[in-house]
Amino acid sequence: MANAYDPATGAGLDPATQRLLDRRDRVLGPSYRLFYREPVAVQSAEGLWLRGMDGRAYLDAYNNVPAIGHSHPAVTAAVGAQIATLNTHTRYLTDPVVDYAERIVAKFPAPLERVTFACTGSEAVDLAIRTAQYGTGNRGLIVTEHAYHGTTHAAAQVSPSLGPNNPVGDHVALIPSIDTARAPAHEVATRLLDSVSAAIADLNERGHGVAAVILDSVFSSDGVQVEPAGFLAPVVQAVHDAGGLYIADEVQPGFGRTGEWWGFQRHGIVPDLVVLGKPMGNGVPISAVVGTVAAQERFGSEVRYFNTFGGNPVSIAAATAVLDVIEQDGLVEHAARVGGELLSGLQSLMGDYERITDVRGAGLFLAADLGSRDAGLSPDPELAARVVNALRDEGVLISASGPAAATLKIRPPLPFTSNHADLLLEKLELVLRRETRA
Amino acid sequence: MANAYDPATGAGLDPATQRLLDRRDRVLGPSYRLFYREPVAVQSAEGLWLRGMDGRAYLDAYNNVPAIGHSHPAVTAAVGAQIATLNTHTRYLTDPVVDYAERIVAKFPAPLERVTFACTGSEAVDLAIRTAQYGTGNRGLIVTEHAYHGTTHAAAQVSPSLGPNNPVGDHVALIPSIDTARAPAHEVATRLLDSVSAAIADLNERGHGVAAVILDSVFSSDGVQVEPAGFLAPVVQAVHDAGGLYIADEVQPGFGRTGEWWGFQRHGIVPDLVVLGKPMGNGVPISAVVGTVAAQERFGSEVRYFNTFGGNPVSIAAATAVLDVIEQDGLVEHAARVGGELLSGLQSLMGDYERITDVRGAGLFLAADLGSRDAGLSPDPELAARVVNALRDEGVLISASGPAAATLKIRPPLPFTSNHADLLLEKLELVLRRETRA
């Protein structure tokens, strides 16, 4: 995992942090990992800022869950009112889930017109897989070789980025990560289509058939790949021709981050199933699958699905507040505008620092590759780790990502302003100057 | 599914309910099902009572999620304070998750000493399966033939109660449902052990080996099977001898419902992994796997697990309030006492109504079989459906369960009092008198 705290090589921590860490290690399971060479202990958060237990303020340029900002009063008010009134499940009739379902479905192009609620992106991916496999009668799934789609058994099987010990299923065909920094723009769509076509042939040969291709609409774990817009379109046709579905994983790009409501929109496509998660409730657990009736009917009528907490009125209240604020504050357009400014700033830095080998982004989902400008644009994960940790020490939180873990990933809450962008760029330049001194 | 609303045979609904239902059907996925011949539309809830949109009060004798009562002010206060302060994930250090982890782990016997958080019981079951399979190197899983363990792909594969279209994996061996009404008490443990031993042999023969046996500690979906206490003990030894783990599914029995903190305690066993869910946050999504270091170490260190919403401070705040209230109000002892009274009342009704063929329970998890007192105790699912729906019309909510869907399942929030029990018994007698007139 990129940017994980390593107790063996970690810095000497202050005594209070070390005590909390020791207590944590004694009671939490061995799966837990922390971010940063020196983990950040957090006391509170508001808007774009985390307040550390060390008393310092950290600019959050990484968390896409608190989409409308940390501790947003609209979420606090909505959740507080609902939890004092009613919190139950969808086997009773309640108003809030229906009201919200109508609003969220209206954000999608026809025929994406039905929504099923769960609690996490992983659960929604898992449900989309079950729906696609049962509906098509096929088992095969196509994902990129550095994909991340979740942590349930079925979602982890399509998440090779979890590492070599995480078993990828025999029914899964991996296609090469898209790499727009190294591919000529006019070849991105062709290469992707060729990869998908080969995967389809492979799955058919192995007797699995094609249930679905699952693609994160901005390829978050593949290093953020967004240009040229439209490169996903041929994939939809190819997977349909093979009898499979197109599943758009919008857990990371969804809800306005890319400067449009959904990341798939910039490619001009209409998926069969769309998976929503992280930002949906600003941190209150809620996720969903939005899909066509055709894609969902067979599974829904013959197998069914019930998630006790899925669509509960309290999670729905949080999600409703998120929609309200995104709409009222114009955060989709805001993400496009400020994201554009930040991308320009990164491009300008790239002009001054040759160790930045590519920058790219859509709205407030941005990436900068670090490495050498040789023929292969050799990535430098050590430099990326140094930059991420130096920025943390300067009070700015981002992380590293991508197949080589050499891509800086910048993904702040949506109310990130031009001033925040300026601060980030200023600190990034400071750190680059220091860390790239030859 | 027992007790599902069927639009084809459903009663004519009042216009407001029908309008809400129509709106719901237009936007929710085809998987959704409602309870009762006439669905209950809910406006608000407090303590043991749901308030319907029809203005009526319904005694909730069925929902085990609002464990400490609907809309409990302690949960409202805790969630409200935390959500206004901080809600983030476990890759930063925060106090609440460590404080809670220490408290929850202390509720378990050694060596159950580490906890991993997720959001739903299904996710926790899924994680326990991944942990067991990776840790043991085996794939095989043993569950009862009417088990329900969840809705992710992997959890649904061990949930045959979801029906014939829900595929059970080849790596899953089913053992007969325990049926304490039809088995002599002294044979329950022997029969179960024989079944498990046969399943172990079967899985070994099919080359899967044994990763785990997964048993709901009160067999909720198998009709609630609780006596004689201790019958689970031989299973633990058998599965260990086969190289597998014992996973206790405490999503339904956990948190005091059975009159002890955990359902497995009445059997005097110590599982390797324990799955927690539903009542844990009184409706705010949170779940967990509690386990030994030995059972979790290999998966945790070599594969890892991260759940974005798992262990978030807001869900943890709700869970902390639940622990506080259970402890302060003595709800474990309360469940034992009132559950005992209710069981006596059901036994007394069984003396008067021969269509009740068995009653049983542990704490506030109770069951009554309906059928004929012939040699096979033939179950009567139609009578059970009539009783459940007639009780609903009388303002008391329970449901039907079990392999034959002929078992009344009674599972109220824990603050259910003797007065509530009297009301339930009075209404049940009224309904039985009417529905069993020959």
Secondary structure elements and their pairing?
Two copies of one chain form a homodimer.
Chain A (H helix, E strand, L loop, with lengths): L14 H13 L14 E5 L2 E4 L4 E4 L12 H11 L11 H11 L8 E5 L2 H16 L3 E5 L8 H4 L15 E4 L9 H21 L4 E7 L16 H9 L3 E5 L23 E4 L10 E5 L1 H10 L10 H16 L2 H22 L3 E7 L2 E6 L10 H13 L2 E2 L1 E3 L5 E4 L7 H18 L3
Parallel strand pairs in A: 3-13, 5-6, 5-7, 7-8, 8-9
Antiparallel strand pairs in A: 1-2, 2-3, 4-10, 9-10, 11-12, 12-15, 14-15
Kindly list the characteristics that best describe this protein.
homodimer; Aspartate Aminotransferase, domain 1; 16% strand; four-stranded mixed β-sheet; 438 residues; alpha/beta; 15 strands; globular; seven-stranded mixed β-sheet; 12 helices
Please name the two chains that share the biggest interface, counting residues whose Cβ lies under 8 Å from a Cβ on the partner chain: A-B, 103 and 103 residues
What level of helicity do the residues of chain A show?
25-40%
CATH architecture label name of the largest domain in chain A:
3-Layer(aba) Sandwich
Q: Which CATH first-tier class of the largest domain in chain A would you pick?
A: Alpha Beta
For the largest beta-sheet of chain A, the strand count, sense and barrel status come to: 7 strands, mixed
State mean pLDDT of chain A (0 to 100 scale). Answer: 96
Oligomeric grouping of the chains: homodimer
CATH fold label of the largest domain in chain A: Aspartate Aminotransferase, domain 2
CA radius of gyration of chain A: 21 Å
Number of helices of chain A: 12
Structural class from helices and strands of chain A?
alpha/beta
Number of domains of chain A: 2
Strand order of the largest sheet of chain A: 4-10-9-8-7-5-6
The fraction of residues in strands of chain A falls at 15-25%
